[in-house]
Amino acid sequence: MEKAPPAEGGMEVLCRVARELSIPFTDSTPPASLFIPANGLRMHALDWGHIDKPPIVFLHGGAMTAHTWDLICLHLRADYRCIALDQRGHGFTNGLYAMGVEEPRADTLGAAQSLGLKRFVLVGMSVGGNNAIAYGGVYPQTLAGAVFVDASPGVLPTGYKDVNAHNAAIASATSFDDAVEASWKHKSRGSKGYRRYLLAHGTARFDDGHWHQIYERNLAPLLPPAERTANMAARRDALWSLVPNITCPSLIVHGAESLAQNAATMEDMRSKLPDAKLVQIAGAGHHVQEDQPLALAQTIRHFLTDIAY
Questions:
Q1: pLDDT value at position 92?
Q2: Does residue 1 sit within a domain?
Q3: 33-65: buried (b, 16+ CB within 10 Å) or exposed (e) per residue?
Q4: Banded pLDDT at 56 (limits 50, 70, 90)
Q5: How is the chain classified by DSSP, letter by letter?
Q6: CA-CA distance, 149 to 72, in Å (whole number)?
Q7: Which residues pair with 125 in a beta bridge?
Q8: What is the overall mean pLDDT for the chain?
Q9: Which of 89, 99, 172, 288 could share a disulfide with 218, CB 3.0–4.6 Å?
Q10: 31-45, 155-169, 193-207, 216-230 — which is least confidently predicted?
Q11: Residue 180: inside a domain
Q12: Does 7 score more than 90 pLDDT?
């Protein structure tokens, strides 16, 4: 696979985007790129340092990488140890992309154990939010807090259609510049500079000569429609059954323009969590951390000041 030039995803670019978006930061050191054992995986993680600070673990959504959290981590790192994981089948982590409950739970547990984390805040977006439910519903005693970014066990059909359309738009491109333009034309929220930076980490030219999301290299064979529907329903029911077990303080963040979640599903999620607040962020779609990174960083920071590690 051919990747974008390394400079496109460099720290200098990230800091420039942060300044353009008025996101405060004090440390421009690149994060450490780690490979850790987790549930039989060679899991990749970005560790933003400050090992003496309270830890936060970030789980990205489907078709993304750990870098989706870079602006959030850049802002929070002065006060927290931010660790963003490439989930199985994504980024530099091996394994087949999994949409179940057990495997992602074991992956997160293995990563926390390898990192020596006894108590931490878990932040998950979309599929990463579901994986946070899968983990928090069984190991709530290890969590000081949980943040669910535009995530609930149920996803609106429009959310799936939007992801597929975005992936197809990128797959029409035969150059990195065209991939950026196709992605931006499909969804033009947030910073185009940040989109370019993220695509430098999350896309590649495959053997067919077109650019694709790199997670697509590890997709499991597609199940027949009826079996796929049954599996998704079982996963959804399993996740809903776990939500009430997450007893730590929780924050739900909803992108006001999301096609994957609406206000009703977010309120349903809030009502089933024992101790949760719900915040809606204007001007954000499903990818809140990319569409409105400053607002999300400030929202998470405010939540963190109210909890005790």
A1: 96
A2: no
A3: eeebebbebebbbbbbbbeebbbbbbbbbbbbb
A4: very high
A5: -BPPPGGGGSHHHHHHHHHHTT---S--PPPEEEEEEETTEEEEEEE---TTSPEEEEE--TT--GGGGHHHHHHHTTTSEEEEEPPTTSTT--S----SSHHHHHHHHHHHHHHT-SSEEEEEETHHHHHHHHHHTT-GGGEEEEEEES--S---HHHHHHHHHHHHHHHT-SSHHHHHHHHHHH---S-HHHHHHHHHHHEEE-TTSSEEEGGGGGPPPPPPHHHHHHHHHHHHHHHHHHGGG--S-EEEEEETT-SS--HHHHHHHHHHSSSEEEEEETT--S-HHHHSHHHHHHHHHHHHHTS--
A6: 13
A7: 149
A8: 96
A9: 89
A10: 216-230
A11: no
A12: yes
CATH, residue 59: 3.40.50.1820
Query: Whose CA is closest to 64, among 126, 135, 115, 155?
Result: 126
Strand partners, 85: 45, 59
Tally the domains of the chain. Answer: 1
Model pLDDT, residue 225: 83
Smallest CA-to-CA distance from 37 within 106, 84, 136, 128 is with 106
Is 186 among the domain residues? no
